[in-house]
């Protein structure tokens, strides 16, 4: 497997003979990351073929642009930048990389590390300023590529003194506690912040052409990074303000009351701004995971493309759906050429974009394990954004029916190098076939 310039897993996860069932979650996770790798997906969208230049879904003459510049932000910014460098070569004239991982020396452009978490960090504000400055220096014969993945909002969103809360922690926590989804939180952030969000990056580019290449985590490619290259639609604005009004006591959370006051909608962006092109997302992870285990005499089944809600809600829904699948597939599982069944799904656990999903994964596993009643079942969850610390890996799996509700089962962790992709979290349940 050569999925990326950097092999994403710390060790070869093929397993050894005799491991049997426990190799399946690892194989599925590897397959998911391989198929949703941001480098390969972006590389396919940015390339030169003879005299033709491919940019997303468009094919143009290779000499069309005087200058091609890029900005890359988010958890997969390094992978997307490497893809652009390898695909376009010397045609890239300038660029800037912002994300939580260091910029490797083979990337010949400026970059800055921006920590995960709330927008408005010192590094994030400075990175956003530099990216808007780069965009503002382009002209009508130039192209700006926006390489965007989850976590980009930490670089594109700049606090606005008239409407952004002084401290983001209390109001984002209040939204999460009230049941706001991760997509609703993204809408709220795009409305309350300034800088590059809500079309701000594309607006800064002036008359230059703009094309965004997006890696989606499950909240929708139109909102990743706070929608830096498109204006929020009227319905999205209405939903965002309704969520804010419903979930926040703004006076108590440090936000000016003017944050909810009606204000003019920004002017539309010019026709030179292309629609975002999503090159990788949760569906790619699901296909890769299913392909990886379908060849191993296991029956792959989709539980649900994406579950909404927090870890406890997802655990309840996933385990209930597994029961339904096993009832439907009881006859197929008795076939002698089947070793078992594997059910897949994805989720964000309503963790806001750019935040660490691993605490939510641990909560999911502690809730899901006791709810799975089929003997020998393994339940797993993995953050495709990665995690290389063995004490805090990207995810892992555990045997079901161990301990009681709320008790964390013994986790078999799987480490993965960050910076490869971020298409949300992969959920998996492996059920062995009954043996008489």
Distance between the termini: 37 Å
Percent in strands: 15-25%
Structural class category: alpha/beta
| Largest sheet properties | 6 strands, parallel
Q: What is the typical, i.e. mean, pLDDT?
A: 89
Low-confidence stretches: 1-6, 11-18
Number of strands: 19
Radius of gyration: 22 Å
* Amount of helix: 25-40%
Q: Give the overall form.
A: globular
Instruction: Give me the number of helical elements.
Output: 13
For the biggest β-sheet, the strand order reads 6-5-4-7-10-11
Provide a concise account of the structure shown:
The chain is α/β, with parallel strands linked by helices. Helices cover 32% and strands 23% of the residues.
Question: What can you tell me about this protein's structure?
Answer:
With 436 residues, the protein is α/β, with parallel strands linked by helices. The protein contains 13 helices and 19 strands. It has helices at residues 23-35, 38-45, 77-88, 122-136, 153-156, 168-177, 182-192, 200-204, 234-247, 282-294, 311-328, 330-333, 358-371, and strands at residues 46-49, 52-55, 58-61, 67-73, 92-99, 110-113, 142-148, 157-159, 193-195, 209-215, 277-280, 298-307, 340-347, 378-383, 388-389, 392-393, 395-399, 412-414, 425-432. The chain has a six-stranded parallel beta sheet with strand order 6-5-4-7-10-11, with helices on both faces. Strands 12-13-19-14-17-18 form a six-stranded mixed beta sheet, with helices on both faces. Strands 1-2-3 form a three-stranded antiparallel beta sheet. Strand 1 and strand 2 form a beta hairpin. The model is unreliable at 1-6 and 11-18 (pLDDT under 50).
């Amino acid at each position: 497997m050569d999925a990326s310039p950097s092999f994403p897993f710390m060790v070869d996860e093929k397993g050894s003979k005799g491991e049997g069932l426990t190799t399946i979650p690892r194989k599925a996770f590897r397959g998911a990351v391989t198929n949703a790798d941001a480098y390969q997906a972006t590389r396919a969208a940015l390339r030169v073929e003879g005299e033709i230049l491919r940019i997303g879904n468009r094919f143009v003459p290779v000499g069309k642009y005087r200058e091609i510049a890029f900005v890359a932000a988010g958890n997969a910014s390094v992978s997307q930048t490497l893809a652009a460098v390898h695909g376009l070569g010397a045609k890239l004239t300038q660029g800037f990389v912002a994300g939580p991982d260091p910029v490797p020396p083979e990337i010949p452009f400026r970059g800055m590390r921006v920590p995960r978490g709330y927008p408005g960090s010192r590094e994030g504000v400075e990175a956003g300023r530099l990216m808007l400055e780069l965009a503002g220096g382009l002209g009508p014969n130039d192209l700006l590529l926006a390489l965007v993945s989850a976590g980009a909002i930490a670089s594109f969103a700049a606090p606005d003194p008239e409407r952004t809360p002084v401290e983001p922690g209390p109001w984002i926590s209040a939204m999460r506690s009230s049941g706001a989804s991760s997509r609703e939180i993204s809408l709220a952030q795009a409305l309350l912040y300034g800088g590059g969000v809500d079309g701000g990056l594309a607006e800064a580019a002036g008359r230059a052409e703009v094309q965004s290449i997006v890696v989606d985590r499950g909240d929708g490619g139109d909102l990743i990074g706070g929608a830096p290259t498109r204006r929020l639609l009227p319905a999205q604005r209405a939903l965002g303000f309704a969520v804010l009004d419903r979930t926040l006591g703004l006076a108590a959370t440090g936000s000016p009351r003017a944050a909810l006051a009606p204000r003019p909608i920004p002017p539309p962006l010019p026709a030179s701004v292309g629609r975002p092109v999503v090159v990788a997302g949760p569906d790619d992870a699901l296909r890769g995971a299913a392909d990886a285990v379908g060849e191993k005499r296991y029956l792959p089944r989709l539980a649900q493309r994406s579950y909404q809600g927090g870890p406890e809600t997802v655990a309840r829904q996933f385990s209930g759906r597994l029961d339904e699948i096993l009832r439907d597939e009881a006859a197929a599982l008795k076939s002698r050429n089947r070793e078992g069944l594997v059910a897949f799904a994805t989720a964000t656990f309503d963790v806001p974009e750019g935040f660490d999903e691993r605490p939510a994964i641990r909560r999911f596993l502690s809730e899901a394990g006791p709810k799975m009643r089929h003997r020998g079942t393994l339940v797993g969850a993995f953050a495709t954004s990665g995690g290389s610390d063995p004490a805090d890996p990207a995810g892992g799996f555990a045997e079901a029916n161990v301990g009681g509700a709320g008790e964390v089962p013994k986790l078999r962790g799987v480490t993965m190098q960050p910076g490869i992709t971020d298409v949300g979290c992969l959920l998996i349940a492996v059920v062995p076939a009954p043996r008489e």
